[in-house]
Design goal:
Layout: H1 13-20, H2 25-37, H3 44-57, H4 62-77, H5 84-94, H6 97-109
Amino acid sequence: MPTTTGLHSQEAWRGNFECLNSGNPEAIELVVRYPEANPWYFRSGYHKAEILKFLKRHPLTEDQCARLRKVILDRVRGTPVREMRAYGRVTPRVTDEQFEAELFAINENSNRQSVP
């Protein structure tokens, strides 16, 4: 089982995905906490993208989906980051009507130019 501190270091990822791929609910919960913590270190964006890809393929509780929706909204409101595409790919897995409405509101109020 990976540890919380182990998830925040680059070396920890080599062995941790074996445990995570087992579908252990405790491991999934721990992995949901990683984007919530949003650690920054060399290659952390790549690790977050891998985690989001993992989460897209595994069952999540409604509480975990709600927490990931909050994380995604925080990232959308913030500065674009390397793993933004991965957040977009996991979005259909966690979405609900209120979440979609909030995303549309952010888009409507955004000063960023989008290409039709």
